[in-house]
Design brief:
The structure is a single chain. Helices cover 60% and strands 0% of the residues. The longest helix has 12 residues, at 34-45. With 95 residues, the chain is mostly helical. It starts with a helix and ends with a helix. The chain is elongated. It comes from Trichonephila clavata (Joro spider). This is SCAN domaincontaining protein 3like.
Length: 95
């Protein structure tokens, strides 16, 4: 069973999640493509969203508050994250 999982999920190791998706508060804005810089700068200075990311981590991208305030970044982050809504992402919320 272990070798079967390893074979089936081997391509997941090749997926690159941009750091701005996993750790938006820690990103240097100058390292991010222009299309996300403005919203991520605002996210880094928004105390309510900072609190949300501290509590929910990556799952904060799935919250309505984040989508309402930062639709462009949220849409892009969700495209990357939604296929992986699994116990891993759920566990990230409870750490």
């Amino acid at each position: 069973m272990a070798s079967d999982f390893k074979e089936r999920l081997s391509d997941l190791k090749l997926i690159h999640f941009p750091t701005w998706v996993t750790q938006p508060m820690l990103m240097d804005i100058s390292d991010i493509s222009m299309q996300y810089q403005e919203e991520l700068s605002e996210i880094q200075n928004d105390e309510s969203v900072k609190t949300l990311f501290n509590i929910k981590r990556v799952m904060a991208w799935l919250c309505d508050e984040t989508e309402t305030k930062y639709p462009h970044s949220t849409k892009s982050a969700r495209k990357l994250l939604l296929p992986f809504l699994s116990s891993y992402l759920a566990e990230c919320c409870f750490r």
